[in-house]
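Changelog-linked ticket: iron/sulfur cluster example.
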Amino acid sequence: MKKVYIETMGCQMNKSDAERMFGMLEHLGYYQTEEAKDADMLIINTCSVRQLSEDKAFSAIGVWGKWKKEKPDLKIIFAGCVAQQVGKRIFARAPYVDLVLGTQRLYELPNLVKRIEAGERIVSTNEEQFEEYDIQINRVKSVNAWVPIMEGCNNFCSYCIVPYTRGRERSRNPELILTEIKKALSEGFKEITLLGQNVDSYGKGLVKTENGFKTTIDNVWATDDEGKTINLSWLLRKINALEGKFRIRFVTSYPTDITDELIDTVIELDKVCEYFHIPMQHSDDYTLKKMNRKYDYATYKRIADHVRSRVKDVTITSDFIAGFPGETEEQFQTMLDRMEELELDYSNTAAYSPRERTVAAKWTDLYVDEDVKTERLARLNEKNRDCCLKSNQKYLGRELEVLIENFEDRGEKGTVITGRTRNNKIVHIPHDKDLTGEFVMVKITNARTWYLNGELI
Ligand code: SF4
């Protein structure tokens, strides 16, 4: 048995890819180690959303390159979004790398590993996706299993690198998704989170064949044997029909792609949680246009209000960027004011980071000064904190179902179990037994900025 170490950066999609890589490598006789220095194979699974993470990736493998001088058989794989974007130029910066593995070629890993073990150096970043097959997935032990259902994006927001690193939108074969979910449930996972850059596009591009389904990037939709369109609602229904008590979530939704059919499905299906992550990115109309987002503030608000009016107790979370090129103080202030007006429950926040190949990165003369960006991000975070606290205070005194995810001994403060409500609120509960994986009823006794406190009832 040989040892493999994977360092994963970035989003949940990358973490899910790492679980798949571990599964495929196990079949080749590799087992996972937490100690990079002990490994026979090192994989950096990179993120390119921000320049900082790209820089961190190169600095991490710089150390690995030195180890390789002492251990010439050591194999180094550069994978993930930076690999897809930078391709063979990685060899110039890091000549000790054996394999550059793009995001579209994940399922080719076993063949490629055999070839690098035989001494080849390979770049595999062809944008044509390598055909997916049923693999063993070595999931991180947890209550929640992340299951990618689609990948890529066709929206080309002017700041975003994803369409260049993850390619055009492609939906995964529903049969493989359902097989994967059944396996996760049989392994004891209690929550399934469907993952995709635009989950609402799920189904687009699927073509029925004699052997099942083929994934394409075309704007076509397949139907099932009863003539029903295979889309996100269809998939949610299939998963909801699986046996056992578990929860279903999905992220991320593009605002204008949320349909009434999807809202009806969320309302109707008992296992689907009342939670929508709907990134807004900005709320000033001029900036939204420059970002190439396909809605204005009024449209977003109408969608959020509509979801709220239909889905009881729904939580809506979002993403915002501070310091987009050309953003004025007035436009930034508009964003803060409107965040409050929207009563969002939580938002991910970031300062704008220019990414090579994107449209906005070329507007260098409009770049916002770094200090101003930092100051705006701090104010954005402050506003986010206010919104979160207000949102949490609504739950004081309520009785809610919580799925326990964690048990922690806090020394003198005693032991605490932590879990999430259906609408994704974190709840801490003093308790002396580990109830991880159990559904419990909790009365909320206190609301803090990032979490709730409660007691078992
Ligand atoms: S919709 Fe999301 S993933 Fe697609 S380009 Fe815009 S920000 Fe990137």
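Closing comment: Example verified and attached. The domain at 399-456 is CATH 2.40.50 (OB fold (Dihydrolipoamide Acetyltransferase, E2P)). The CA atoms of residues 302 and 308 lie 10 Å apart.
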